[in-house]
Amino acid sequence: xxxxxxxxxxxxxxxxxxxxxxxxxxxxxALALCCLSRGAHAQNIALSAPKPPRATVEAVxxxxxxxxxxxxxxLHSPDMLTVSPSMEAPVKGVEALRTALPQEWRAFPDSHxxxxxLIGDGDTVAVESVWMGTYLNSLPGYPPARGQKVRLNQxxxxxxxxxxxxxxxSYYNPAELVRQLQKASGLSAPKASTPVVAKPVSVxxxxxxxxxxxxxxxxxxxxxxxxxVARRMARPRPRVRVRSLNRR
Length: 248
Fold this sequence. Notes:
With 248 residues, the chain is an alpha+beta fold. The chain contains 6 helices and 6 strands, in the order ααααββαββββα.
């Protein structure tokens, strides 16, 4: 048994208190408070430090895949600019996304984004991804929903400022989306219309007299028969007999 253990057993048997217990307790409390203050200070620094744009975009994609509208919209600036092929003109404001997201998630309940490439350069982040979903609820202006599987390649460019997305430019082919919906639903894609040239049809009205039930026959113009022209026979030329002068 070591010396410290013997002293501890002695004080326990005698009922005396450990002489350094209060001092050790105070030191331990002081160390604990110091560690807690340092941890809180480090946490405050981590929270106040700006996030890299790449992390913000990854959080946006994660919120979209979870269909969490609040977590998705809180990462966008209220006066952000959205440019998309499905929009006739650029739209300013986050309210456009707030209106479009529920409709999109209702039509495609399992829609999600699969990231292929993510590149960041300063405050700009470019994402190449594949958008996938199952068409279960019909959208106005699109073919009827019959459980079509859709897979669409797309490209998105994000511009960030103060950990917020201030501009979103997405690039994809809307005609490809319609083609996949029509192909899966059994509808044929609309073909380019070819101009049809109408043939001229001559319509001759036939006036039927109420007193005469049969239509009149068209008058036939009679022409006089041409007289046959006699051919002139070529007369044979007379043969001329030439006498020879050298005849004896």
